[in-house]
Design a protein that fits this description.
- This protein is an alpha/beta fold and 301 residues long.
- The protein has one domain (9-266): Metallo-beta-lactamase, Chain A, CATH 3.60.15.10.
- 24% of the residues lie in helices and 23% in strands.
- The protein has helices at residues 52-63, 84-91, 101-112, 185-196, 223-229, 239-250, 259-266, and strands at 9-15, 20-26, 32-36, 39-43, 48-50, 67-72, 81-82, 95-98, 126-128, 133-136, 139-145, 154-158, 161-165, 203-206, 220-222.
- The chain has a 6-stranded mixed β-sheet, covered by helices on one side.
- β4 and β5 (48-50) form a beta hairpin.
- The longest helix is centred in the first third of the chain and has 12 residues, at 52-63.
């Protein structure tokens, strides 16, 4: 992994409806940037889609005179639709994700029973493997395979910054759930240990914040803070204890409200279903596909 101590600029854009944080990470020297985990606005009750959140990213790019070099997905999201395809259309930047997206595609293709859907990852321009390195301008970016929350999760390390998606939430919120199809609490623990092996001062940017206790939204911490303060890791300090805790907690959590809406779009790189004969697009919701409903107070961590 690169030993670069470069300090990229990070702009965060919090989307309150889903508790998601989108990012623009940029190289101050070249003005080149990457967009990380963009959100396509979606109202599940009315079936309405909008691009307000993604357009705010484009406005920032224009205002700061940046050039979008990459659109990066950390994993196939279960709680929001991705705007990757929309932003690729607007910027012509390549879209990338971890290579194990193909396993997620195969899993969810069966759940949705979508004949003809390609499960080779060809909906993205690049599939990263563990240890890959690429550039944002002059900044090296290292890819760490980080499964557990999903089969395909990756962490992007850019200088002194790491985008850790949902693997680690803010210290007071703990860690990601690991009970989605393909999730694994033991893999999650091991992924967390790889992230916490980064230098203490590494700035960690998380993908979601559900504002525990009603506090303001937050998304940035450090390796040192997570190691010392993470509510789940300071309580469950061994792999076995963490796995037992995580699996027990996950059994109390309901599925995210948009999981069945989002995954059929997100495993296609953000492409919406093709219009049918009447010109209308339709999402497909399989009934009883996940085999459980757990009633809890929240659906985050």
């Amino acid at each position: 992994m690169s030993e670069s101590l470069s300090r990229p600029e990070v702009a965060a854009f919090y989307e309150h409806r889903t508790g998601s944080t989108q990012y623009i990470v940029s190289d101050p020297e070249s003005g080149r940037c990457a967009i990380v985990d963009p959100v396509l606005d979606y109202d599940g009750s009315s079936g309405t889609i909008a691009t307000n959140s993604a357009d705010a990213l484009l406005d920032h790019v224009r205002e700061q005179r940046l050039d979008v070099e990459w659109i990066l997905e950390t994993h196939p999201h279960a709680d929001h639709l991705t705007a990757a395809a929309y932003l690729k259309q607007r910027t012509r930047a390549p879209v990338a994700i971890g290579e194990r997206i193909v396993k997620v595609q195969r899993l969810w293709k069966d759940i949705y029973n979508t004949a003809g859907f390609r499960t080779d990852g060809s909906q993205w321009d690049r599939l990263f493997v563990d240890g890959d390195c690429f550039q944002i301008g002059s900044l090296p970016v290292d890819v760490i395979f980080s499964p557990g929350h999903t089969l395909a999760s990756v962490t992007y390390v850019v200088g002194d910054v790491a985008f850790v998606h949902d693997t680690l939430l803010m210290p007071d919120a703990g860690t990601a759930r690991a009970d989605f199809p393909g999730g694994d609490a033991r893999c999650l623990w091991r992924s967390i240990q790889r992230i916490l092996a980064l230098p203490d001062g590494t700035r960690l940017f998380t993908g979601h914040d559900y504002r525990p206790g009603g506090r303001p939204a937050a998304w940035e911490s450090t390796v040192a803070q997570q190691r010392a303060e993470n509510a789940h890791l300071t309580m469950a300090t061994t792999e076995e204890a963490f796995v037992a805790f995580r699996e027990a907690r996950d059994r109390t959590l309901p599925m995210p409200k948009l999981i069945l809406h989002a995954l059929q779009v997100n495993i296609a790189g953000g492409r919406l279903p093709e219009p049918e004969a009447n010109g209308q697009r339709y999402l497909k919701i399989p009934l009883n596909a996940l085999n459980r409903t757990a009633w809890g107070e929240d659906d985050d961590a």
